[in-house]
Here is the input.
Amino acid sequence: MENSSCLTGRQWISSQEDFSTNETLTKINAIQQGHCMRCGARVYAKLPNGKFYCRDCIELGRIVEGGLLVRDLELAEFSRMKNGGLTWHGSLTKRQAAVSCELVKNFNQRADTLVHAVTGAGKTEMLFAAIAECISQGQRSCIATPRIDVVNELYPRFKAAFNTIEIGKYHGKEHHEPRLDQLTICTTHQLMKFYHAFDLLVIDEVDSFPYVENTQLHFAAKNAVKEDGVRTYLTATPTNDLLEKAKKKQLKILHLNRRFHGGLLPVPRELFFNRPFLLQQKINPRLLKEIDAVIKSGHQLLLFVPRIEQISIYVSALKNDAQFSSVIVEGVHAMDKNRLAKVENFRQGKSQLLVTTTILERGVTFKHVWVIVVQADDEIYTSASLVQIAGRVGRVKDDPDGLVLFCYRKYTKNIRNALKQIREMNK
Here is the structure.
């Protein structure tokens, strides 16, 4: 790496190039009192030589007992750009504008914020003013989200809105040298590579796996922000701990219960099945009828199934069914090496039916899509995930409604709570 300034605000293990002549570098023991100083996890695994190492963040490079963690604490210097480099010429609704103004105010007052807004409320656009305010002050901001798909969706939208700013995009599926970006968009795992870097950290889909209840990622998010930095959390389904912090006045909470186009959330339809959804590699005829109705309506279909191993069965059964012979069907899951391409194909309308798992439950926008959830009674579907899945539908102004179908064999508390939450948000 030629330019050490690219490492400002970053941390790395001592086996990597550390620019030892740089006076702004601080070196600490990577493992202290039995804990990893990069992710905060308790260290319990041992190498053959008897030394402890951290298994929780090993994908970022192995931290070993006796090793060093190098941090570049140099203060990044950026120019103060007029209007914060914001080149977006869109408009906000009155409700969106109120939230946007409060986010700017809270940033300047150094107050953390929870934005509780329904799916499709336009949370991305509401962030623009706060990001621009941060940039206009010559400061550094980051938007982190648990899912790679969300990073890939956010990046072009911010690139268009701030087209004079260098924006960094980092996640585990793309590898390039670090840059000194004034605006960074990354997965929450990438935050382990930063230390006291950001004046503003936005965590989108804060209740999403793998960030939710992950102490290592929470530790990384805390360390990535400067001591006087600000955190903003975005979600349609906030966790109890965030709501409790808001109740205790530890962070401010902003509500928005309408989508950007003013429409209501689609209320899911429920459909009881008394026979298995799959039998001898064939799809239940009743489910096939529902799938066929969506295709004939001219809408694309997201078909959610609870298990990765079920995807290939559904895809094969649909492709082998004569009534779907002209339909382009694909399946995608977290481990799929062609995951990004398949999602993009669906977004561009190159495929009509995408069988998927909960990796696409949130943070992605598809125009004119309808949704069927198979085995909605499976334990994998929490009430929050069912609400998020339902939120994929009706996200464009010219098609504000549509089908959300929960298929089940046993009515569960999570299904009931999801419907209750949606109806309450629609009031």
